[in-house]
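Weekly sync, protein design subgroup
Attendees: M.S., D.O., the rotation student, P.L. (late)

Item 1: inverse folding check
M.S. brought a backbone from last month's batch and wanted to see whether the design step gives back something sensible before we order anything. D.O. pointed out we never logged the input encoding, so this time it goes straight into the notes. Structure tokens as presented (183 positions):
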């Protein structure tokens, strides 16, 4: 049976929770923009079947929408749980020495499981930072002090870059453009 990425309804608008004021505090803005970008990735995938999600649509690049979902699960785990929370966790999809961070090795048959793993990593990331101030810090693997604020900005940048890739991949897959449900 073929799995299809489910329809997605946004909970945010322009980087804010739908019910948040436009003058929200810094934490609300950062969390809202991160959520916007997380949702954008899911919107880009909504309605595509497992084969479409795993298709390389912009040759010669090997990028796929499913690979981007897997990659962002890895990045969520890396920054929020491994770095910020200091948890000794392995990788979600890859080995420590392969360097592809989930982008390669997609299998259309595993698409539903990969999406579930992504959603679980997002939930775990949010739980790992709940109650911590933006100024809370940790030391990176390269020995630099880094704040939670910086992690939020890094994650927003990472999603923004990859959502641009997702936009192109989606357009090349079925012609759909835009960043709202039902694109």
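Designed sequence read out in the meeting:
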């Amino acid at each position: 049976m073929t799995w299809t990425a489910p329809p997605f309804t946004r909970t945010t608008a322009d980087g804010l929770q739908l019910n948040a004021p436009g003058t929200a505090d810094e934490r609300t803005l950062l969390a809202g923009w991160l959520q916007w970008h997380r949702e954008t990735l899911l919107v880009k995938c909504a309605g595509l079947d497992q084969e479409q999600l795993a298709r390389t649509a912009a040759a010669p690049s090997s990028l796929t929408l499913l690979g981007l979902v897997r990659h962002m699960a890895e990045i969520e785990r890396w920054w929020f749980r491994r770095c910020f929370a200091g948890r000794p966790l392995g990788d979600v999809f890859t080995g420590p020495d392969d360097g592809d961070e989930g982008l390669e090795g997609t299998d259309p048959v595993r698409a539903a499981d990969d999406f579930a793993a992504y959603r679980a990593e997002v939930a775990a990331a949010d739980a790992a930072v709940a109650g911590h101030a933006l100024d809370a810090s940790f030391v990176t693997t390269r020995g630099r002090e880094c704040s939670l604020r910086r992690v939020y900005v890094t994650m927003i940048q990472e999603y923004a870059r990859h959502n641009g890739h997702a936009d192109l991949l989606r357009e090349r897959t079925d012609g759909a453009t835009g960043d709202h449900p039902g694109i």
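Discussion: The first helix runs from residue 26 to 45. Helices lie at 26-45, 50-53, 65-84, 111-129, 148-174.
Action: P.L. to compare against the previous round before Friday.
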